[in-house]
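In practice, a research group might receive sequence data for several interacting partners and want a quick structural hypothesis before committing to experiments. The following worked case mirrors that situation: the sequences arrive first, and a predicted assembly follows.
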Amino acid sequence: MQAMQILINALVLGSLYACIAIGFSLVWGVLNVINLIHGSFIVLGAYLAFGLYQSLHLSPWYAIFVAAPLFFALGYVIQRLILNRVITAPVLVTLTLTFGLDLILNNAMIYFFTADYRKLTLSPPLGSVSIAGAVVPVDRLIATATALLLTGLLYLLLRRSRIGRAIVAVRLDRDAAVLMGVHVPSIYAVAFGLGAALAGCAGVLMALIFPISPLTSSAYLGKAFVVCVLGGLGSVSGALAGGLLLALVESVGSTYLGPSHATTLSFLLLIIFLILRPQGLVGRKGFE
Amino acid sequence: MTRSNIALLILIACVAALPLFGGAYALRLGTIACMYAVLALSWNVVGGFAGYPSFATAAFFGFGAYFAGVLMGKGWPLAAAVVAAAIAALIAATLLGAVLLRLRGHYFAIASLSLAEVLREVVNNATDLTGGGMGLNIPLASGSGVMAEATFYFYAMWGVMLLTAIMVIVVAQTKLGFALNCIRQNETASSMVGLNTTLAKSIGFGLSACFVAAAGGIYAAWVHYIDPSDVFDILYSVKPIVMALMGGLGSPLGVACGAFLYLGLEEVVWRNYIQIHTGVLGVLIVLLLLFLPHGLTSLRFDRLRRRAKHA
Amino acid sequence: MSASWVARCLRLSVPLGALALAAGAFAGPAAAEDVIKIGAPLPITGPLAPEAVKQQQGYDLWAEQANKAGGINVGGKKYKVEIVYTDYQSNTPRAVQATEQLITQNNVNFLFAAFGSGAAKAASTVSEKYKVPTLAATASSVQVYDQGYKYLFGTFTPNDTLTTPLTKIIKAQVPDVKKVAILARNDLFPLAIAQEMEKSAKDNGFEVVYFEKYAIGTLDHSAALSAIKALSPQWIFVTGYTNDLLQIRKQMVDQQMKAPVVSMIAGPAYQEFIDALGKSAENVTSAAWWHPAEQYDGKDIFGSTANFVKLFKEKYKSEPDYGQASAALCGALFQLAIEKAGSIDRDKVRDALASLDVTTFFGPVKFGANGQINSLDPPVFQIQGGKPVVLFPQAIKQGELKVGVE
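A structural hypothesis for the assembly, expressed as tokens:
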């Protein structure tokens, strides 16, 4: 009974983690950039959902359709105007640049929205359902389903569409892609825009579940990091596998060792993975 | 010894004169400046010479602060506790380095980043020894006056900075520095020509930990109270990198200047923009990276060198 | 060649020198003749930012009232009040630095301590060195005051004064309670209060079946809550800050956890906690150092509690909570002490503070030998119908304890 509850908790939480990490993973895999603004994008998405619900009573399900194009445009512009200028520089430079951008965005959010914690409370509340003897809140279930749907859509996009295949091509071999006539800067911008759009959508979903404040951005970023490494960089299925593994380790660790050890455990796992299996659960070798 | 290294030592010697001019607050800033220089110079061994993007500085700093703090709580004198912390960090980091430095690029960055997270949680959970989330009190050394104490900690931190600078200069001039340079340029090739890259990297990692831990120990005694989220703050890992980028990667003089410049910027921005100082700092970082990608000093050196050639 | 090297060094020294000059130029001008400056280091950015706003509201309200009345009367001469704020980024070392900056650069006369127990403790070493009287509005842990400092005073009674009355009420009115589960944030204040809770639960014959800490910044608590649920305790006691408690309470509802008694510290006293949770905040019990329902007739500038609440509502359009009230109290106490001392001499004001024995809108104020207040009875309250309703002390009791949190 309790084991079932732990398992279901982990499955649901794992999908949410995957949703948080997937845009981060895409950017990392394709652009080779550790995008530290990702956490703040998620929070911004959450504020968007909150604002739309408060002012227009627009339910978060529809807010996703507003968030996706807005964040895509934001990401596209940031990549084109700023990031693209240093895209060939070493890891440190791009990383520090996104750190600086994150400072700006986060401070702007504190300034305009204040740091107070807000909560998007649907009325009437959605309640919980019982599955196989375990209690699962409906809002999490819906968020999980949406997260899986988004992940599926991204997978299809990367596999089936022209632009998607171009993105994959750039990730696998940039030089060969150039020779095949792919315009790399615009692919970079599209990939970064997609990453931002995924972050924005994740933020809309998180608004349902977690309190909203600019201060939570680092928590999201931290999860995205761990999930990416556990699952393997830049792959959609990797983010899903990584998210599930992380959630499972946290849930089991927290139940049997106490919640204060859950974080330690997840980071130890991360280091072990880095050393023994840097390509991640489902990643391919060679993206170092 | 190269000219820029002599200039670095002169700069450090000039800093030592600060107590002649400044009051207690200037000394506090001076102490922080020396601390930043220690962090940045140490980071430079791994990040600048060997080209490994290390985010482990916060881990070493927190380790040193807690190691020395716990010892001082047990009655050890400051100097002994700090030396013990430095030696412990040297050994631990050298051993860890052998494992972690097999990773490259982003993977190494993340592994080093998580080191601080793991250590913080370990300290957080070892409540009996470290006080956990309640923090650790370090007993006051003595009831000496405001200025005497400020001067004492300033010179203690300055001393560590001097030792760090000497270490960096010595490393740069010996075989170790050469090896680290080779590793940065092409690690695979270096190991093929018979260089023991693992040994060189590990020693480099250990040396970069040793003085940071010492600075952490002095810091703990200086503020009398530490808690895990403060000393394992991720910013201690990020700031040295920004400083090094500001000053110019690899050059010890540039890195030290970067540290002082960063502190100056931080202080000025912090004082003048209460609500938006982190945003302003972010704008400065972005502008710096976009328009002066090689830092302030390298730009100037290049121009001078070119001019010298023309002459 | 050597000339170019000198030139290089010179060029390098220009930006550094400019910086040094800039740093010097910012040294604040000396305090103007008839203004009393009080420094307030606050965590305006970083994780504690929401708390800084509350503190600032309290200080500002007091300063506004004091200046409206013409200022503080110092031996017949009126001094205006000015509060100098700095941001310490929710970072303890910065708090220490900010405190020293306020003393040496801004030349403040007195200080409000940094927020919370940890930062207040670290920063008090500096104010003690400079012998600047400091009032801490939000430091409750006794560890802050056990350093033998003479210049630090605090307006919160020790943590056990919150947990002991709460335990007594539960024991007297809910005889079903046998098992207690405690979940605490691994941070100075929340952990300290959880340990007090464990002690007073054991003293009162309860069985503590679960005592665990969660790390700062934990996003999801479902595993810990499932573990608690499996133990089916009758009393669930959770500590943390508003965001943690919001999240934990929401997940308790999600997991359909029910218990006769659920207590949370510190959050239910804040209006935003009640607003954000709506119905699920119902019947949550808590304790705080002050409550707007209190009825004291004070000798301070605010006078009665009701008057303070009225002034606060006029200015900020919301109900004051204990954090804001305590901040305003610190200002009012400085005013009382300065007027009593008839001087702005730091040592005289310090002595006046130490010997205060006065009733304020916040309650009777008298500091113990360690500097911590020892004259208050913190109220225990419960959220009923979207409002905090006082259960204890008897004198200001507004309702009866309701059992059952769904």
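Before designing any experiment, note the following. The interface with chain C takes residues 2, 5-6, 9, 13, 107, 110, 114-119, 121, 123, 125, 128, 135, 137, 139-140, 210-211, 213, 215-216, 218-220, 222-223, 250-252, 254-255, 258-260, 262-263 of chain A (CB under 8 Å). Residues 19-215 of chain A form one domain.
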